[in-house]
RNA sequence: GGGCGUGUAGCUCAGUUGGUUAGAGCGUUACGUUGACAUCGUAAAGGUCAGUGGUUCGACUCCACUCACGCCCACCA
């Protein structure tokens, strides 16, 4: 205590206000963190070799923060802050996503309100408009990320469409093209007529609708269909090869005429056909159905595209050409009826595929697009992209939490088809391919790898934004100046660029220091809803590009739902805005409400009441600190572990150690909720409710209180960065730049002797028993009562804590004796072999007391009977481990003892 | 059609390799303004762990089936 004199006291600070006021603290604290530069791992104190890296899943650049963002920011910040405290080079790299389709659609809607279309502005004008829109709305999300307390390194911030990331994308495209993994070809794609663009398979959703099943007289067959107009594009019918009705016709060709001239139809056999559905004959439309397309490839059937990208019938649809699909269907059905080709119709429920962005029904059609071939063997690697991505998870290089999603991942990856990466929207990474107009490009060979001279994928060049081009055609020597080189008008699927996120953010393909130091990353934390969109593709692209996995662990969180388990939506008016509630209850309270009760892969129910509860808790921690600060006077950062003086001291240190050990383990194993619950229980139920109360009696605990508070603040900091940092600043900080954020977590302490915990529990139980008796007999809180405790073995312990018991249970005179008669007119209770008597005189109701004790006796008897039965079972004695048998014996002895004492009380009651 | 998950106190959920008299918070009830905190305190009531069967000395925990709810994938023309 002598060194207290040279301590710069904290008494300069005004006393802590009685309630924590987050509004007065948070922005200031965040600013001071940011100004300190400590979010940047290069500025962290000490030698930090071991990295801990998380790449922030980039929110849409034009978006606003919703509760889902708040959740991932909280979970990621928790991990990053924890590992920073553990002395690692913690890097959390933030960024935003250009979200090609989403942003494109948003701006189109804005234009629509002005009565314009993108065509009015032209491509360059439209993109300028999009960029303008992004510039204007980009600030919001940044501010909101800060509001949540996110300790991310803004100096390394990335954007999926900035220069560095554009370079990454071009380089990727070029390498994959050279390796034959990217090709241009005519295949069936999902086409959204509203977006006027292709969609990837997983960008298609299904909606159940009631529809009509039309039965058509179809040459010699009856064919059922929900899309009669597509029958104009049929080139075959399929039947089950074992179907007796049609088996003999397989291989034949016949003609049908739906009013646009004869169509040649071949009969093929395919076991996929369901004999029981409809007529058992399927009309095949290879150009407008993925399944039919595959059958057509197998059977070399011709394609006949009758629906175009504009959602209208093509010239091949004869007199229906130019009609919108619905109109064509209506007229076609009319015509069928009048020609008596429509046998009947049926109503049925079926799934309609729709665009996940705009909900418009998707039109499957064949189109010439760019694809990533996932099955092609990679030169020099001997494996396909699919194989690489499967192996990374299968061999444990990547672990997915919760584990069950690994199965989902495998299933999806195994069934993955070629990935269509070209999009017909204007905003995004333009496909880095030029076509030479002077060379005669052959439809058949164009787009094939090695067809250089006709198609050039470019990687070189500095100017990326404007669309840097090859200088001249390597085949004919023409250059762009004379307009012979034309860039592909399409852009890339937005997931193509986001799938490079873990390494593009570090500067790839440059061999940067960051890349060497921080890749692969440790954790990728995101929602399970983008497992396929994003995670799977990151694994695919990263293993290909870098030969490393993108991350070691995938932590998948669930959805935030309302208190009734419903999704939050505008129409239900059940949206909780994270910024609003952070301002109302404090960010720390919001964070806790998103951590506690949240387990990987499971949805979380959230309500304002829950947030309010954690606001109460932050205030509790504040007041615990406030009390300690007031008691200690001049607080000083503990230099080491203080010497315990009393049982309570040993108990709180033992409990603190245990909680620290367990919660550390919880965080390491991603059980954040459990860690938080443990800390809350300790803080509230042990430290505040017991140790602080005991300290008021025993006194002289300055060093202990300081130590426990300091350790506790560190443990809480990853969960509640603001309130802990503020308390630290007012209590322990040695100067302005001294942050709890970079304190040292410290090693786990050795396990303390169990007796300290057990002995203190006994004192606690005695106090609780007295309080219990007081409550039973409605003894006024203000009234002090006399209590007699009869203890035998533990008499010393009880005597040593007489004062604590007296004060905490509001006892006037506490008599402790080894044994003796029960005082007359006393209410009694037995805890851990100790008899507690509270003489209440005439208050006591003998009958009530008797029945109360009888109930206790009955309970104990039942318990004892169960134990005796168990111990009387030979099989149990023989087969159960001896320590289990021993434990049961001890329990039996304790129960017998308790029963004896209870019965004794009953006999002396009269 | 295939796969996955959930079902524990009125509500929201813990319960880690099988051994607890099955826990917490909220809510409810009773009492309470003790100088850290009413954003608080003390205490109480409340559960045949969805059901059935099995494995085991022993099942909330493991297995099978059933029921209920939820999700994902595929997609029947």
Q: How does this model look, in words?
A:
The protein is an alpha/beta fold and 910 residues long. It contains 26 helices and 29 strands. Strands 6-5-14-16 form a 4-stranded antiparallel sheet. Strands 10-11-9-12 form a 4-stranded mixed sheet. It binds one RNA strand of 77 nucleotides through strand 8, strand 12, strand 13, helix 9 and helix 16.
Radius of gyration over alpha carbons? 37 Å
- Work out the helicity level: 40-55%
Strand content: 15-25%
Distance between the termini: 57 Å
Mean residue pLDDT: 89
Order of strands across the widest beta sheet?
Answer: 6-5-14-16
Number of helices: 26
Number of strands: 29
pLDDT < 50 runs, ≥5 residues: 1-12, 443-454, 459-467
Outline type: elongated
Q: Please describe the biggest sheet, giving its number of strands, its sense, and whether it closes into a barrel.
A: 4 strands, antiparallel
Q: Structural class from helices and strands?
A: alpha/beta
């Amino acid at each position: 205590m002598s060194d207290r004199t040279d301590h710069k006291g904290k008494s300069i600070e005004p006393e802590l206000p009685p309630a924590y006021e987050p509004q007065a603290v948070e922005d200031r604290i965040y600013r001071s963190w940011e100004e300190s530069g400590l979010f940047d791992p290069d500025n962290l104190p000490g030698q930090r070799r071991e990295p801990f890296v998380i790449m922030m899943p980039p929110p849409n650049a034009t978006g606003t923060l919703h509760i889902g963002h708040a959740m991932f920011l909280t979970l990621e910040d928790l991990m990053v802050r924890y590992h920073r405290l553990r002395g690692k080079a913690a890097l959390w790299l933030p960024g935003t996503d250009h979200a090609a389709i989403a942003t494109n659609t948003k701006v189109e809607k804005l234009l629509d309100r002005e009565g314009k279309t993108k065509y009015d502005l032209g491509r360059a004008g439209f993109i300028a408009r999009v960029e303008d829109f992004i510039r204007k709305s980009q600030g919001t999300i940044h501010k909101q990320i800060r509001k949540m307390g996110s300790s991310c390194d803004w100096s390394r911030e990335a954007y999926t469409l900035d220069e560095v990331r554009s370079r990454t994308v071009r380089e990727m495209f070029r390498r994959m093209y050279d390796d034959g993994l990217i090709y241009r070809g005519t295949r069936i794609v999902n086409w959204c007529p509203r977006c006027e663009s292709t969609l990837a398979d997983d960008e298609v959703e299904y909606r159940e609708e009631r529809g009509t099943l039309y039965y058509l007289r179809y040459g010699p067959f009856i064919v059922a269909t929900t899309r009669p107009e597509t029958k104009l594009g049929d080139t075959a019918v399929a039947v089950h090869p074992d179907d007796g009705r049609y088996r003999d016709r397989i291989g034949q060709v016949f003609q049908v005429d739906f009013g646009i001239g004869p169509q040649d139809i071949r009969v093929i056999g395919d076991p996929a056909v369901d004999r029981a559905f409809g007529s058992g004959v399927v009309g095949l439309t290879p150009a407008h159905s993925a399944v039919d397309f595959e059958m057509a490839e197998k059977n070399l059937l011709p394609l006949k595209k009758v629906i175009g990208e504009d959602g209208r019938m093509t010239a091949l649809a004869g007199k229906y050409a130019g009609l919108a699909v619905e109109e064509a269907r209506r007229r076609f059905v009319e015509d069928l009826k009048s020609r008596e080709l429509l046998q009947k119709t049926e109503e049925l429920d079926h799934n309609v595929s729709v665009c996940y962005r705009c909900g418009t029904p998707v039109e499957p059609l064949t189109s010439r697009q760019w694809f990533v071939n996932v099955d092609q063997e990679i030169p020099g690697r001997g494996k396909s992209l699919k194989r690489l991505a499967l192996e990374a998870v299968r061999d444990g290089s990547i672990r997915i939490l919760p584990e069950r999603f690994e199965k989902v991942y495998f299933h999806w990856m195994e069934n993955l088809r070629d990935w269509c990466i070209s999009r017909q929207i204007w905003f995004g990474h333009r496909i880095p391919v030029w076509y030479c107009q002077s060379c005669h490009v052959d439809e058949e060979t164009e787009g094939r790898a090695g067809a250089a001279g006709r198609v050039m994928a470019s990687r070189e060049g500095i100017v990326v934004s404007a669309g840097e081009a090859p200088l001249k055609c390597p085949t004919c020597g023409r250059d762009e100046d004379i307009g012979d080189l034309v860039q592909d008008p399409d852009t890339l699927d937005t997931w193509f660029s986001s799938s490079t996120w873990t390494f593009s953010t570090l500067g790839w393909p440059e061999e940067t220091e960051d890349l060497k130091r921080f890749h692969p990353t440790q954790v990728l934390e995101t929602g399970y809803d983008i497992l396929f969109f994003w995670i799977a593709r990151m694994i695919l692209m990263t293993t290909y590009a870098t030969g490393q996995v993108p991350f070691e662990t995938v932590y998948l969180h669930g959805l935030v739902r309302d208190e009734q388990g419903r999704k939050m939506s505008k129409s239900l008016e059940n949206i909780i805005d994270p910024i609003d509630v952070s301002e109302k209850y404090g960010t720390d309270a919001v964070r806790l409400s998103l951590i506690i009760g949240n387990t990987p892969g499971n949805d979380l129910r959230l309500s304002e009441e829950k947030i309010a509860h954690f606001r109460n808790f932050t205030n509790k921690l504040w007041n615990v600190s406030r009390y300690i600060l007031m008691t200690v006077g001049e607080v000083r950062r503990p230099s080491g572990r203080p010497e315990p003086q009393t049982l309570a001291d040993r108990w709180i240190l033992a409990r603190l150690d245990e909680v620290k050990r367990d919660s550390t383990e919880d965080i390491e194993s991603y059980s954040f909720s459990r860690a938080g619950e443990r800390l809350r229980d300790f803080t509230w139920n042990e430290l505040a409710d017991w140790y602080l109360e005991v300290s008021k009696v025993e006194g002289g605990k300055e060093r202990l209180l300081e130590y426990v508070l300091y350790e506790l603040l560190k443990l809480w900091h990853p969960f509640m960065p603001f309130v802990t940092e503020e308390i630290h600043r007012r209590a322990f900080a040695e100067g302005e730049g001294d942050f709890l954020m970079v304190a040292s977590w410290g090693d786990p302490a050795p396990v303390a002797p169990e007796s300290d915990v057990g002995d203190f529990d006994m004192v606690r139980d005695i106090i609780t028993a007295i309080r219990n008796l007081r409550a039973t007999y409605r003894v006024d809180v203000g009234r002090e009562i006399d209590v007699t405790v009869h203890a035998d073995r533990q008499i010393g312990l009880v005597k040593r804590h007489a004062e604590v018991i007296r004060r905490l249970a509001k006892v006037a005179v506490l008599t402790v004796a080894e044994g003796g008669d029960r005082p007359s007119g006393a209410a009694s209770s037995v805890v851990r072999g100790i008899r507690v008597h509270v003489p209440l005189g005439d208050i006591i109701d003998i009958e009530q007391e008797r029945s109360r004790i009888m109930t206790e006796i009955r309970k104990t008897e039942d318990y004892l009977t169960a134990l005796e039965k168990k111990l009387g079972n030979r099989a149990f004695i023989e087969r159960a481990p001896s320590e289990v048998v021993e434990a049961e014996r001890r329990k039996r002895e304790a129960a017998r003892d308790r029963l004896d004492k209870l019965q004794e009380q009953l006999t002396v009651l009269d």
